[in-house]
Design brief:
single chain, about 100 residues, mainly alpha
Length: about 100
Amino acid sequence: MLIEKEQADSLCLLASMEADNQDARARHRAVSAAKVAVRHAVRFISEAGVQMHGGMGVTEENILSQYVKRLSMVQATFGDCDHHLAHFGAVMASETEEA
C-alpha cells in the first residue's frame, strides 16, 4: 500500500512541476498519468484497508469507511480514469506520429 501511495505521490509531484511547462502535451500527459495513478492507488489502498479490517472496515463507526466513500467521489472529479487513459493515449499517439 505504501508503494502505491509513493508512486501516486511521485506522479503528482511530476504533474505539479509540469504545470509551468510551455509544452501543452507534456503538461496534459503528466496530469493524466497522475490522475490514473492516484485512482489506481486509491482503489487499491481502500480495498486493502477494508480487507485488513474485515467487516469492521465498512461500518459507519470506523473512519476508514468514510474515507472510502469520500475517495470514491473524488475519483470522478476532473474526469474519470477512462477519460484520462484515453487522453494519455491520444497524447502519446500524437507524439509518436510527429517523431
